[in-house]
Design goal:
By secondary structure, the chain is mostly helical. The chain folds into 2 domains: about 375 residues, MFS general substrate transporter like domains (Growth Hormone, Chain: A), CATH 1.20.1250.20; about 60 residues. About 80% of the residues lie in helices and about 0% in strands.
């Protein structure tokens, strides 16, 4: 690490001369795959009322439709990265994408609420096999400016997918294509997956770690236990009425996390290969970058969930109007992302703090609009705040991704990307669980307007925390 390089320098170790190169079509293919799991995490937000009406699901089961996907996805991401390093990233990518298409079909054809939950869990597992191969392939097949551009496009794709999922969900539910209703939000994945498989077969090079590391059974089991004991009670607790098992599970979380760390450290010291090597966290940029992902992703997913509920149940908007209210955020995010590499070249990691300020200003405008205009909210009243928030988010997310992976060697690309995406996915699930629970708990006592403004105020605190933490990053990364 040095202060003499250009901001966010792309002087990461280059791929070897024999390394396959990722062409433009291959990059498009992996970015398409990167968008799918994130779209599907958010696409159901505006479809839940229709699912409830059709399948007569309880609130707790509806929560599981969202949480089952998110928890399975988060729990298995690191394992998916390790499997790609071991068996080949192209092979795992194709298998994961095919499984994602099949499980999406199962979701769309689910005859009942519990079969939908089971299909969503399987869909999350398929996503966990597919997504780590995207970043690992980029890390292994690009270097220098090409890697910087690819990572910037990945960050832009991820951010846009999270917003577009909610918009697309509203359009598909309202369109009721061939009478499919909410089922279209899952069935739409099938032709996209088929196209992706054809493109991947033609354009995606095979890569794997030059020193494949065997699987770590105890570490995998303990990581799964740690994430499950944290995420399941938080996502299901409120809807289930906070039964005893939720409190016992939360109490078990620190014990499971401590056991995971101890087992991994012991394996590392004994010369074995742990699932998440503690030595990976020797990188200052990785540690501090992962810390930034937490408040950013918690706030982002909480905002998307709360706004979807508030606009439909409080402001009385239909699914299309509720989704369209986020369109300014998505459009500005996309165009700001295109300028991201130039901004980073000039300002380095300080662009994250600037983005936090813009995002905070946008959220403040959304909060003010909700307070003054409730319940008459629409795309127009949310336009100024959404546009500013989108610009701010676009200045943060792609750069954070680059920071986290900047010092990860190509030999550990799979596990590095798995750790990063596990952190992000866990934070997304926590955002829905914590901010969503806050909003839904306050609504009966304070009314939906005050519950919304209070939740937005909490998110403002998370945005401020992201900006402050970003100041601890080295401005330049070698």
């Amino acid at each position: 690490m040095t202060d003499t390089t250009t901001p966010l320098s792309t002087t990461a170790p280059a791929t070897s001369p024999s390394s396959p190169a990722l062409g433009a079509l291959g990059l498009f293919t992996v970015l398409l795959a990167a968008a799918l799991p994130l779209v599907d995490f958010f696409i159901v937000n505006v479809a839940l009322p229709s699912i409830d009406s059709d399948l007569h699901a309880s609130e707790a089961v509806l929560e599981l439709v969202v949480a089952g996907y998110g928890v399975a996805y988060a729990v298995l991401l690191v394992l998916g990265g390790r499997l790609g390093d071991l068996f080949g990233r192209r092979r795992l990518f194709l298998a994961g994408m095919a499984a994602f298409g099949l499980t999406s079909l199962a979701c769309g054809l689910a005859p009942g609420a519990w079969s939908l939950v089971a299909a969503r869990v399987a869909q999350g597992a398929a996503a966990a096999a597919m997504l780590p191969q995207v970043l690992a392939t980029i890390q292994a097949t690009t270097a220098g400016p090409r890697r910087a551009r690819a990572m910037g496009l990945y960050g832009a794709t991820a951010g846009l997918a999270m917003v577009a999922g909610q918009i697309l969900g509203g359009v598909l539910v309202a369109a009721d294509i061939a009478g499919t209703g909410w089922r279209a939000v899952f069935l739409v994945n099938v032709p996209v997956v088929l196209a992706g498989l054809l493109l991947a077969g033609r354009s995606l090079p095979e890569t794997h770690s030059p020193r494949p590391e065997p699987l770590d059974g105890p570490g995998t089991a303990l990581l799964a236990a740690a994430l499950l004991t944290l995420l399941l009670p938080l996502t299901e607790g409120r809807a289930a009425g906070w039964p005893l098992w939720t409190w016992l599970s939360l109490a078990a979380f620190p014990l499971a996390a401590a056991a995971f760390y101890a087992v991994e450290r012991r394996a590392d010291r004994a010369g074995r290969t742990p699932l998440v090597p503690p030595s990976l966290f020797a990188s200052l940029t990785l540690r501090r970058g992962l810390l930034l992902i937490l408040p950013f992703s918690i706030g982002f997913s909480g905002f998307m969930f709360v706004v979807a509920v508030a606009l439909q149940q409080g402001a009385g908007l239909g699914p299309v109007a509720a989704g369209s209210a986020l369109l300014p955020l998505a459009v500005v995010f996309f165009f700001t992302s295109l300028a991201g590499p130039r901004l980073v070249a000039r300002w380095g990691t300080r662009i994250i703090a600037t983005g936090s300020v813009l995002q905070a200003a946008g959220l403040a405008l959304v909060l003010l609009a909700a307070h003054r205009s409730w319940p008459d909210l629409s795309a127009w009243t949310l336009l100024p705040g959404g546009a500013l928030a989108g610009a701010g988010q676009a200045m943060q997310l792609p750069v954070i991704y680059r920071v986290v992976l900047s010092d990860v060697p190509a030999t550990r690309a799979g596990v590095g990307s798995g750790v990063m995406m596990t952190t992000q996915q866990s934070a997304l699930a926590l955002g829905v669980a914590t901010l969503g629970t806050l909003f839904l708990s306050l609504t009966p006592t304070t009314g939906m307007r005050d519950a919304l403004t209070t939740t937005l105020a909490v998110q403002l605190g998370l945005v401020a925390l992201t900006g402050l933490l970003s100041l601890r990053l080295p401005r330049t990364i070698g």
